[in-house]
Amino acid sequence: MHPVHVGVIGLGNVGSGTLDLLSENAAQIQEKLGFPLQVTALCSRTVQSKSLPFPNARRTADWREVVSAKDVDVVAELVGGTTVAAEIVNAAIEAGKSVVTANKELMALQGPDLWEKAIARGVNLAMEASVAGGIPIHNVLREGIAGDRIAALYGILNGTSNYILTEMEKHGADFADVLTEAQRLGYAEADPSADIDGFDARSKLAIVAALAFGEKITPADIYTEGIRRISPFDFHYAHKLAHTIRLICVARLTEDGLLLSVRPALIPQSTILASVQGAYNAIWVQGRYGADTFYYGRGAGPHPTGVAVVSDLMRVARELRGGSPERVSPFAHARLGIYKPISITRQRRAWYLRFRVSDRPGIIAALAQVLADKKVSLDAVLQLPGGDKDNLPFVITLEPTAEEDVREAVAKMSALDFLREPPLALPMETSL
Q1: Span 209-232, pLDDT tens digits
Q2: Which of 121, 158, 234, 382 is such that its CA lies 20 to 30 A from the CA of 365?
Q3: Contact 392/356 with Cβ under 8 angstroms?
Q4: Residue 201: CB partners within 8 Å, gap ≥ 6?
Q5: Confidence at 91, pLDDT banded by 50, 70, 90
Q6: Range 146-154 average pLDDT
């Protein structure tokens, strides 16, 4: 059978990993498909200087040549970002080419609209590699457990943040020192804000929540906090409470609607998510009928992500050769509903409040009074012996309380003159 021809645009880490797999696994891919995947075009700004497999593939720095080429059936967009990448995907669809992408930002912002364009043009759009690298979570939600009704999902979806937090936990190192090491190892970019401020995880949550709950979600509607304020002290106190700290993505269906958040939270050490270490990702899905399922693996990297890209290329190639009149939406639903954001301030949680103070008599009483004024009940007070009296950390945990009341209390506490910095408030996800 004739090969399906592939044009690859973007030859960074993911693009290079994808080419490695397409080259090294070519025979196995052909055995599985019954026909070969043939790379006929390669595109990047520096493509002419790169040592790459597929020496007979046309090389160009102009993506338009790939999209318009008659010998390209499927375009792999591996550029990233939301500007040029959007032009590439739109142009490929208009040219009648199916598209495979690893672009989480673009799919989170424009994915449903791009799918509508693909359907109208009679081509496919595949995006398995956009979330969680080597974990096939799209396929799980789209087909594997499609018969269930999802009640909630909890995820660790950013490997950089998870590496930083787990290194802090293991070695008692400061955030800044671990971030520097993560940058040296290539886990974190020179500008790490997308990772450590939660925006990368937010894009991924927008995509998987759309698959799980059938709603068109704007990433900016998701409440997001990063990990910059987490300290070794927080891990010490969390352990005293039999918890640890992770950057947790939450999508939970409530009576009021869908609650979404990305933020650091205390989770029990006994839970399976607490064991996720280093740059790994994990997603815990709670189904109403199928109960809990758990998915774990590399969240990034050339080869794990390349596996997802190549698997999508194979799926799209089968459709092109076999003909699939009823293709499955990449968002698992024929049409997505419109998400109506619900403020997370409505939810009730136990809370962890960490303070740094200039020690003097009456501090606990003053803080307790603020909480009492909001009718918030204390659960426990934790303080390590000794320490710097001019910068003394201690913790108050709260019984389950509406987040709105906690926020108001923390805002009032922040004005107290003995505080060295505003209180750090983290939810305790005890329902895991």
Answers
A1: 999 999 889 999 999 999 999 999
A2: 234
A3: yes
A4: 155, 157, 158, 161, 224, 247, 249, 262
A5: very high
A6: 94
**Tokens standing for 70?**
């008659």
Q: Tell me how far the alpha carbon of residue 310 is from its chain's centroid.
A: 20
| Angle of the 13-24 helix axis to the 26-33 helix axis, nearest 10 | 70
The one catalytic residue among 70, 104, 117, 204: 204
- Confirm whether 117 is a catalytic residue: no
Per the DSSP assignment, residues forming a β-bridge with 125 are 99
The amino acid that residue 48 corresponds to is Q
What is the C-alpha R_g of the chain?
A: 24
Mean pLDDT of 94-120: 93
Q: Which domains does the chain have, with CATH numbers?
A: 4-133+302-335 (3.40.50.720), 137-298 (3.30.360.10), 345-428 (3.30.70.260)
The closest alpha carbon to 156, from 297, 260, 292, 253, belongs to 297
Identify any residues that bridge with 395 across adjacent strands, giving them in sequence order: 354, 382
- Extended strands (E) in 131-279: 150-156, 215-216, 223-224, 243-253, 258-268
Instruction: Identify the residue whose tokens are 């937090």.
Output: 165
Give the integer Cα–Cα distance in Å for 252 and 158: 19
Given a contact cutoff of 8 angstroms between Cβ atoms, the answer to whether 428 and 264 are in contact is no
How would residue 336 be classed by pLDDT, with cut points 50, 70 and 90? confident
**For 364-422, how does the pLDDT look when each residue is reduced to its tens digit (9 = 90+)?**
999 999 999 999 999 999 998 777 888 899 999 999 999 999 999 999 999 999 999 99
pLDDT score at 390: 86
d(CA 213, CA 206): 10
178 in Cβ contact with 169 (< 8 Å): no
Contact predicate 131/223, CB 8 Å: no
pTM for this prediction: 0.92
Rounded average pLDDT over 201-215? 94
In 337-384, where does DSSP find H-type helix?
A: 363-373
Are residues 11 and 19 in contact, defined by beta-carbon separation less than 8 angstroms? yes
CB–CB of 194/239 below 8 Å? Answer: no
The CB density around residue 289, as the number of other CB atoms within 10 Å, is: 9
Looking at residue 325, its pLDDT comes to 46
Secondary structure (DSSP) of 238-282: HHHTTEEEEEEEEEEE-SS-EEEEEEEEEEETTSGGGG--TTEEE
- In degrees and rounded to multiples of 5, residue 96 shows phi and psi of 80, 25
Q: Which of 157, 134, 174, 138 is CA-nearest to residue 276?
A: 157
Answer for the pair 42, 54: CB distance below 8 angstroms, yes or no: yes
CA distances from 401 to 267, 278, 342, 408 (A): 17, 32, 17, 12
